[in-house]
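call fold(seq) -> tokens
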Amino acid sequence: MRRQKDLQGEYHHRIFHALHDWDRAWAGALAVAGEDARARSLGFDQLGHFGDRGCALVAGEVAGRLAADGPVTLAEFGCGFGGALRAVLRDLREHGVEVAWALGIDLVWDHVRLCRTIGGTEPSGAGPSGAGPSGAAGAAVRPVQADAGAVPLREGVLDAVVCTGSLPHFADPGRVFAEAARTLRPGGVLVMTEETSLLAPGRAVSAEFRRLHPPGIFFLAEVGERVVQLWDAGFTDIRVRSLRSWACEHLRDRLKAMRLFFGDVAAIYGESEAGTLVDTLGAALGEYESGAVVPALVTARRSP
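ret:
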């Protein structure tokens, strides 16, 4: 466990180390964007390939599949710096879903610390409900350092569990799914974006993809294997929706913007790190186009 914690922490720190000095990074974002709301919309506190649009997909699916008479409880397994979960909460409000409380679970202490700093929450996790850099007012994200395969929650307390691109970083996804099933109420929903986690049957990724998504940091599974893992964990109504066309278009747009404004991105992250981000998205796009990696929206329901 310590090894995975160190590997994941070192990998993300190497690329996103500029954000660890959040005051400086936020000042850079303001300088680039020109004003607060626009700087928040850039989503610098989101670590996934799909960014804000992926969060909107997750929120829409949660809202559509969750029959709730009142405020709901929600957790993200692998929350990173919390930006994606804050965006999901914002989008859920736009769908008319009220969130009573939302936990962000992450293995790496630095991610939890930065989630608190960026979101403006107190160490207890019961912070103010004002807007953070991703623009999420309302229920605050409560970050908790924990293994997603051993979440410190009692059984059946969650209405929804989400993963916005964090799934490839789980070395034992079957154990994570079992924990999601344990903490969800009967009929609760699991919604995940699979950004770089799913392989098409019989396919292998390129050396360039593996250089930028290294083994030991990114773990892959075939589509059928993922379905079996979810079924074995106690989920039903499992759906794997391919996002290939959507994801290819989206990554082309992101890459175009990042290359066009590369100087601005480099001013915040650093030139080397900005180059790595562009290369990483480009490698993922190449695998989507070749059909080796299946970008997908995966949903499942906790057995009654």
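The first strand starts at residue 72 and ends at 77.
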